[in-house]
C-alpha cells in the first residue's frame, strides 16, 4: 500500500495537515508527469520507490497535497490503471474538484476496479466545515463532490468519508454525524482517524491535541449513531484507550516505523498482538498518558485478522 504523492499543492488549508511546513507546496517541479511515470515503472520493476508502505504491493494510496489538482491527474490515473490492472487504487481527496460532474464521471470511469475514493468532512454545515478547512465554500463543494461520486461511481467502487479526530473536530462531531446520516447514508465506510501530529500540524498542536481516551469518549457517546453507518472504523487507536464495545470498529493501519511500545505493553498486555501499538508522535507530544497494559480478559471475539483484530463485542454494551 505505498503512499504515492502526486501533487504538493492543495486547495484547502487544514490546521491538522501532516505535510511539511517549509516549501513543500512549492515543489511542483518534482511532480511532472514524466517523473510520476518513472516512479510507476520503477515500482513495477520491483525497485524501492516510496517512503511509506513501499513493501506492500497490492494497492496505491494517491495522496498530496490534493492529488486531483495535478494538471495530468486523469492521465496519471489511466497510467496506473493500465500498468496495474488488478491493484486497488485509493484516492485521498478533499472532494472539491469532484464538484465538477464531468471530472467526477471521468475519474470514476478511468479508475475502473478496484477503486476507492476517501473524502474528509469536517462539519455538518458550512460554518463549522469551512472553519476547519479554512476555505470558504469548501463545505458546499465537498458535499457536491460526494453526491457526484454517488451518481457516477461504477458498481463495486467504494466511497469513504474520513473524519480527522482533533480537539477542534470533536466540537462539531455530533452535528457532523447527523448530517452524514441524513445526506449520505449510502456511503460505504466512515473512518475516524486519531490525528497524527506531524509537519504543519505541529504548529497548532496545542489547539488540536487531546488524549486518545478523550477522543474515544466522544465517539462512544455517539455509539448508536456509529452503528447506523454501513461500516464505521477507528484508525490509529491503541486498544487500551477505547471502550470495549468500540473494539470491533478498531482497525490497525499504521506503518511499523511510526509505532512504539511502552513498558508493560509487550510483557503484560493480554491484547498485545491485536493492538496497533503507540504512535510515536502521541508519545512525543502528549506523553501517551492513557496507555496501560490490559491484563484482564475482555468479552470480545477475536478475528485472527491483524488489520481488523476484533470481530465482535459480546458483553453488555451499556456497561462496556
Strand and helix layout:
Layout: E1 3-5, H1 33-44, E2 59-63, H2 73-83, E3 88-92, H3 101-111, E4 115-120, H4 126-133, H5 138-152, E5 158-165, H6 167-170, H7 173-183, E6 189-194, H8 205-208, H9 212-221, H10 223-228, E7 232-235, E8 250-251, E9 259-260, H11 265-268, E10 278-279, H12 280-286, E11 300-302, E12 310-313
Parallel strand pairs: 1-2, 2-3, 3-4, 4-5, 5-6, 6-7, 7-8
Antiparallel strand pairs: 9-10, 11-12
Helix pairs in contact: 1-2, 2-3, 3-5
Quick summary:
The chain has helices at 33-44, 73-83, 101-111, 126-133, 138-152, 167-170, 173-183, 205-208, 212-221, 223-228, 265-268, 280-286; strands spanning 3-5, 59-63, 88-92, 115-120, 158-165, 189-194, 232-235, 250-251, 259-260, 278-279, 300-302, 310-313. By secondary structure, the protein is an alpha/beta fold. The chain has a domain at 1-160: TIM Barrel.
Account of the 3D structure:
The protein is α/β, with parallel strands linked by helices. It has helices at residues 33-44, 73-83, 101-111, 126-133, 138-152, 167-170, 173-183, 205-208, 212-221, 223-228, 265-268, 280-286, and strands spanning 3-5, 59-63, 88-92, 115-120, 158-165, 189-194, 232-235, 250-251, 259-260, 278-279, 300-302, 310-313. The chain has a domain at 1-160: TIM Barrel (Alpha-Beta Barrel), CATH 3.20.20. It has 12 helices and 12 strands. A hairpin with a 7-residue loop joins strand 11 (300-302) and strand 12 (310-313). Helix 3 packs across helix 5 (138-152).
Amino acid at each position: 500500500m505505498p503512499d504515492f504523492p502526486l501533487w504538493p499543492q492543495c486547495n484547502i488549508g487544514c490546521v491538522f495537515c501532516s505535510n511539511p511546513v517549509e516549501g513543500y507546496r512549492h515543489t511542483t517541479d518534482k511532480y511532472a508527469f514524466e517523473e510520476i511515470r518513472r516512479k510507476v515503472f520503477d515500482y513495477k520493476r520491483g525497485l524501492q520507490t516510496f517512503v511509506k508502505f513501499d513493501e506492500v504491493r497490492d494497492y496505491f494510496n494517491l495522496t498530496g497535497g490534493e492529488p486531483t489538482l495535478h494538471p495530468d491527474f486523469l492521465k496519471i490515473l489511466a497510467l496506473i490503471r493500465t500498468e496495474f490492472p488488478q491493484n486497488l487504487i485509493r484516492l485521498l481527496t478533499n472532494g472539491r474538484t469532484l464538484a465538477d460532474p464531468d471530472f467526477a464521471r471521468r475519474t470514476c470511469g478511468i479508475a475502473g476496479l478496484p477503486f476507492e475514493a476517501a473524502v474528509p468532512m469536517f462539519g455538518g454545515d458550512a460554518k463549522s466545515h469551512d472553519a476547519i478547512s479554512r476555505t470558504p465554500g469548501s463545505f458546499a463543494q465537498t458535499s457536491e463532490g460526494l453526491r457526484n461520486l454517488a451518481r457516477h461511481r461504477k458498481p463495486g467502487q467504494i466511497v469513504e468519508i474520513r473524519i480527522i479526530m482533533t480537539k477542534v473536530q470533536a466540537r462539531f462531531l455530533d452535528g457532523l454525524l447527523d448530517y452524514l446520516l441524513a445526506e449520505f447514508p449510502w456511503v460505504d465506510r466512515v473512518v475516524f482517524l486519531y490525528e497524527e501530529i506531524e509537519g504543519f500540524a505541529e504548529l497548532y498542536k496545542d489547539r488540536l491535541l487531546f488524549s486518545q481516551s478523550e477522543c474515544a469518549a466522544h465517539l462512544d457517546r455517539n455509539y448508536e449513531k456509529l452503528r447506523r453507518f454501513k461500516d464505521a472504523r477507528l484508525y490509529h487507536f491503541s486498544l487500551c484507550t477505547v471502550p470495549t464495545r468500540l473494539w470491533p470498529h478498531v482497525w490497525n493501519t499504521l506503518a511499523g516505523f511510526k509505532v512504539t511500545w511502552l513498558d508493560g505493553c509487550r510483557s503484560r498486555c493480554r491484547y498485545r498482538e491485536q493492538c496497533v501499538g503507540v504512535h510515536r508522535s502521541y508519545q512525543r507530544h502528549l506523553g501517551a498518558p492513557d496507555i496501560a497494559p490490559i491484563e484482564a480478559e475482555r468479552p470480545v471475539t477475536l478475528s485472527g485478522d491483524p488489520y481488523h483484530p476484533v470481530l465482535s463485542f459480546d458483553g453488555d454494551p451499556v456497561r462496556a
